[in-house]
Design brief:
141 residues; three-stranded antiparallel β-sheet; six-stranded antiparallel beta barrel
């Protein structure tokens, strides 16, 4: 099963590869769509169709302090993290992050901040990332 995104057609979803053919210059892939959604600009659909749920540790620099986080999910556009303590942050703020498990670091912008049972959950959008080979994150075509 692969995750697919066709922004020009406003489609996102999941597909299963059913056949692969090759010639000298091209690879042809036949896919059977399992779940598909139109209008990828609708944020809930965007998140649900190509994010991978994963709990992994990392660090983020907020308010001039490095804090440990655990990811909730990771996607090609950003990540959602959980901090064990509530801190004063707001949407629009920028921060640096380090995510050793995926060999990923860079700058993010806070999109959302939500209170959680223990701490807060923060939605982040990548602004700049180093080492984009994210093993285990969805592959988008």
């Amino acid at each position: 099963m692969i995750d697919v995104r066709f922004p020009e057609m406003c489609l996102v979803g999941n597909a299963e590869i059913v056949r692969v053919d090759m010639d000298d210059e091209h690879t042809f892939i036949a896919m059977e769509f399992k779940r598909i959604c139109h209008d990828v600009d609708d944020q809930p659909y965007k998140k649900n169709f190509y994010s991978k749920y994963m709990a992994a540790p990392g660090r983020i620099r907020l308010n001039d302090e490095y804090l440990e986080f655990t990811t909730v999910n990771v996607s090609a556009d950003g990540l959602m993290i959980r901090l064990s303590e509530a801190i004063a942050v707001e949407a629009g703020m920028k921060a640096q992050f380090e995510f050793e498990q995926l060999e990923l670091e860079g700058e993010v912008q806070i999109l959302s901040v939500d209170a959680a049972d223990a701490g807060i959950v923060i939605g982040l959008k990548y602004l700049y990332i180093v080492n984009t080979a994210v093993n285990g994150a969805p592959f988008l075509i």
